[in-house]
Design goal:
The chain is of the alpha/beta class. It has helices spanning about 10-45, 60-70, 160-170, 175-185, 195-220, 260-265, 295-305, 310-330, 335-355, 365-370, 380, 390-405, 415-430, 435-464; strands spanning about 130-135, 140, 225-235, 235-245, 250-255, 275, 290.
């Protein structure tokens, strides 16, 4: 039974009339609100469409869906891949823990891999040469032992250990005291600091022929990046000079920063392009030059930072950078077109710099630099092999800078010479993508074989 069952006909009619009136009021309200919604929607950006403005951040769910749709497919998944095991240990229960029955067979339920290093002890190898006497004729026989692949000359350590020490000191930039401690902890080998130095000197002495070959290759290269950095020898300031190509590294230590060092290394007959910074020491080389735009960019940015409120300075810097950007983007297979385009870029940058020659404006110093080095700014446009910056040389000297900060330098002229030779050889092997320890070991073995052959020939000629 409902509440309306006891109502009279007149009461029901009154309720119906009230409901109709209420429905009419609500219908008018709905119509008004719909009109208001349309009015407000017309005032929104994009005409009230569902396009969300750029300044509105999507909610977390929408962002997740957007990332999933925009994520690039990987060439390979970055998961921990299983390696081929060198040892396999199988674990199984021999008897049933419930009834005691003997179990056999089964299947691999899961595996667990981990990587571990072995406990290594140093190998002390002793070769005993046995002399024997023939009981018939009385001849004493003794074998000839060839150790050229194992040890260098009469050294106490093998070529593998020598290569490892040279690798740690040169490539890993580990100080000798740390190498001494590492060998003691890892292998139980106790070598003195003096013996470690002699090992490095011995490797350097063997590498001298390879070092000379690198010099000849540098002198024959069409493009050479050159740079220098500070170095200390027995507390006295000097310089390590770097000459490099994409596949070569050559270092030399000199106490002088004079341009004669570059002239000594590259030689009088060098006719390639020298890429360097704006240091005037390289100007003594009577060859073509390409000055580093990366260094010039740094000075341009410093000029803007020093004059933040001067809009003219910023506009001038932008014009110079724009010309360099156009030169970087230019390319042509016709040499005559490249030569002409180089001249056009030189004229354009000179036109930008000319108003500030001998003026009191902040741009004067860099404008005069443009005038002084104008023929050496756009050589890379004419010759595509030439880079516009000297980043290769900066990367080449970076290991020397780090080594100087760690060790402070070398203590003798022999140590500086050893450092330059080893940095040249190991640096060249690195940029060529070669295994440095293996290359060093092969170099020691080859040199040892040549020495043994020369010694044998000398003995045979003396006997004859």
């Amino acid at each position: 039974m409902t509440d309306a069952d006891g109502l009279s006909r007149a009461e029901l009619i009154a309720i119906i009339v009230e409901l109709r009136r209420t429905n009419g009021v609500l219908a008018e309200r709905v119509e008004f609100l719909e009109a208001e919604v349309e009015r407000l929607r017309s005032q929104l950006p994009c005409g009230g469409s569902k396009v969300v403005p750029e300044w509105v951040k999507p909610n977390r769910k929408e962002r997740r869906e957007q990332e999933r749709s925009e994520r690039k497919k990987r060439k390979q998944s970055f998961v921990r891949r299983r390696q081929i095991p060198t040892e396999v240990h199988e674990h199984a229960i021999e008897q049933c823990p419930k009834c005691g029955r003997k179990l056999c067979g089964g299947w691999v339920h899961r595996t667990r891999q981990y990587v571990e290093i072995p406990e290594l002890a140093v190998r002390i190898v002793e070769h005993r040469i046995i002399r024997r006497k023939c009981g018939v004729c009385g001849t004493q026989c003794m074998p000839k032992v060839d150790l050229s692949t194992e040890v260098l000359g009469k050294a106490r350590v093998g070529v593998r250990l020598m290569s490892f020490i040279a690798y740690l000191h040169t490539v890993c930039r580990v100080p000798l005291r740390t190498i001494k401690g590492h060998l003691k902890v890892m292998y139980g080998l106790d070598l003195g600091l003096g013996e470690l130095c002699q090992i490095l000197h011995a490797v350097s002495e063997v590498a001298k022929p390879e070092y000379a070959v690198l010099l000849e290759e540098i002198r024959g290269s069409p493009v050479v990046n050159a740079d220098e950095t500070g170095w200390r020898e027995d507390g006295i300031n000097g310089y390590i000079w770097s000459f490099s190509t994409p596949k070569l590294r050559y270092f030399v230590y000199r106490q002088s920063r004079s341009g004669q060092v570059a002239k000594e290394v590259l030689g009088e007959l060098f006719d390639g392009v020298v890429v360097s910074d704006f240091y005037c020491g390289y100007s003594v080389l009577l060859t073509r030059h390409q000055r580093c735009w990366a260094h010039f960019y740094r000075d341009l940015k410093k000029l803007v930072e020093a004059n933040p409120s001067d809009a003219v300075v910023g506009q001038w810097v932008d014009r110079v950078m724009s010309i360099h950007k156009q030169a970087k983007e230019f390319s042509s297979d016709d040499k005559r077109v490249r030569v002409r385009q180089r001249e056009l870029f030189e004229e354009a940058v000179l036109e930008v710099a000319r108003p500030y020659f001998k003026s009191d404006k902040p741009q004067r110093i860099l404008a005069e630099r443009i005038e002084k080095f104008l023929p050496e700014l756009f050589v890379f446009v004419e010759d595509p092999r030439v880079p516009s910056e000297n980043n290769a040389a900066e990367r080449a000297v970076r290991p020397a800078v780090i080594a100087r900060k760690i060790s402070g330098g070398t203590r003798s002229a022999k140590g500086s010479d050893t450092k330059a030779v080893l940095m040249s050889l190991f640096g060249t092997w690195l940029v060529r993508g070669q295994d440095t320890m293996r290359m060093c070991r092969q170099m020691l073995i080859s040199a040892n074989r040549i020495t043994c052959q020369v010694t044998d020939k000398a003995i045979l000629s003396h006997v004859a």
